[in-house]
Specification:
The protein has five helices and 34 strands. It is of the alpha/beta class. The chain has two domains: about 90 residues, 3-Layer(aba) Sandwich (Udp-n-acetylmuramoylalanyl-d-glutamate--2,6- Diaminopimelate Ligase, Chain: A, domain 1), CATH 3.40.1390.10; about 180 residues, 3 Solenoid (UDP N-Acetylglucosamine Acyltransferase, domain 1). The protein is globular, with a radius of gyration of 23 Å. One of its GO terms (molecular function) is UDP-3-O-[(3R)-3-hydroxyacyl]-glucosamine N-acyltransferase activity.
Length: about 300
């Protein structure tokens, strides 16, 4: 998330009422999660296990819960609760805006686009040319939809990220200030849910097609010309590269990369990165021919055991 204009380190510290280390005029341009930070961004860290990763990241401002040596060329925001203060910044720069109409007055809708009755179009949404938005689709604030996109009924674009911190009194939600971006010629089936990024974008690449009943987690990036069948669940921060095929009921854990040309057969449980142009099957998943040989060998076990007696 980039701020509307540059802020100083001191200004940001005053918003969240915390101490800082560095030049008071140190430039702050935005805030992001660690996997998408760029210079000028704030990143937060609240666990010693990840201090080094945050301090060595591309972010130049680190919101942290301990006084540590400040890396050269960077600044620190020292807070007793970085998670809470990251939420404060999201509320400040991306406050919730109630809707007054089914189609927001601030939405931009391109020539030739058809929006069926009871579709909801949120604040600051941009929809390109020749799109078709079916009845009862929900397109949340700040979503970007390019040309020739089809969205079927019951689909939700821009729901909140499923991201919580466990506290003694219960789960504390990390607020979502990001977007969903659909590139040209995408089609989304009915009753899909595509969560917006926490601070960045959840993106569906050009020409990709999604079946019904699919969940895409926050900040996940789907490449070009991908096919995803029904009941697939993809967690947050996954990268699916180009020309990937994912068949029904596949589950993909967070922070993995599905390489170009990968095929995931039905009901795969994907727990790690894949190799380009390889077909996988099973839970735990593996290369399909290897998995078939394993299952064939398992079928022989009763006979092997019998002969051992």
């Amino acid at each position: 998330m980039k701020f509307p204009h540059q802020h100083s380190l001191k200004e940001i510290a005053e918003i969240i009422n915390c101490d800082y280390v560095g030049d008071p005029e140190f430039p702050v341009l935005g805030m992001n999660e660690i996997h998408v930070v760029t210079p000028g961004d704030i990143v937060f860290v609240d666990h010693p296990k990840y201090y080094d990763k945050a301090l060595e990241s591309a972010a130049t401002i680190v919101l942290i819960n301990k006084e540590v040596a400040c890396p050269e060329g960077k600044a620190l925001l020292v807070s007793d609760d970085p998670f809470r203060d990251f939420n404060k910044l999201t509320r400040h720069f991306k406050p919730f805006q109630p809707a007054n109409n089914l189609i927001s007055d601030s939405a931009e809708i391109g020539e030739g686009t058809i929006i069926q009755p009871n579709a909801f179009i949120g604040n600051n949404v941009k929809i390109g040319k020749d799109c078709l938005i079916h009845a009862n689709a929900y397109i949340g604030d700040n979503c970007i939809i390019e040309d020739n996109v089809i969205i079927h009924g019951g689909t939700v674009l821009g729901g909140d990220a499923f991201y919580y911190k466990k506290r003694p009194e219960g789960f504390d939600k990390l607020l979502s200030g990001g977007r969903v971006v659909l590139k040209k010629n995408v089609e989304i089936g009915s009753n899909c849910s595509i969560d917006r990024g926490v601070t960045g974008d959840t993106t569906i690449g050009e020409g990709s097609k999604l079946d019904n009943l699919i969940q895409i987690g926050h900040d996940t990036v789907i490449g070009k010309q991908c096919l995803i069948a029904s009941q697939v669940g993809i967690a947050g921060c996954v990268v699916v590269e180009d020309d990937v095929t994912i068949w029904g009921q596949v589950g993909i854990r967070s922070d993995v990369t599905i390489a170009t040309g990968t095929v995931l057969m039905a009901q795969c449980g994907v727990s790690k990165d894949t190799t380009p142009n390889t077909t996988y099957w099973g839970t735990p998943f593996g290369e399909v021919r290897t998995k078939l040989k394993e299952y064939a060998a398992i079928k022989k076990l009763p006979e092997i055991v019998k002969n051992l007696k």
